[in-house]
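REQUEST ID: PR-0412
SUBMITTED BY: lab tech R.K.
PRIORITY: routine
TASK: structure prediction, single protein chain
INPUT:
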Amino acid sequence: MGESRTKSQTDGVNLSPFALSARQLSQQIETMRRNRLLWGKVVNLDEYRMLRRHQEPATVLVVDDERALRQALVRVLEQEGYRVIAVDGPEALQRAIESHPVDLILLDLQLPWLNGLEFCAALKSERALRDIPVVLLCGQAAKEDIRKGFEAGCDEYLAKPVDTQRLVRTLKYMLKR
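STATUS: complete
OUTPUT:
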């Protein structure tokens, strides 16, 4: 009589195709992925990023000394659903990098307390940080400045004043890679 049931069970797992809703199935798959990532001996960085991307919004670190621009960038990026950390000094930058996982950095090239090119090159030379996309922001869009930015390791170069639509497209593209 136990064999005539419409739902078969093996080791506590329901094998009926209609037993789980799509949402429940999705949640179980996500749980299995999380468990594999948390308990596995080797963590695949790409899988971790994909899992994290689906769980929480991307975090963008904005490094700029111009308060008005910083506030405008924060407003635009938060409206697009990003988590934004904005800093304007060396201490705040150090705290932000040490205490928050950052998915992308918007970096002003000409800061009074930091050479943006040197900072970008230093980030890209660190094994743990080199995969974080860096978008340089600069008031000048001379070919020589752009070349130096890419040589320092930036992933994109945007001129000020920043076209917010282009900025959002750029960030979406950078974060998909």
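NOTES: DSSP finds seven helices and nine strands in the chain.
REVIEWED BY: pending
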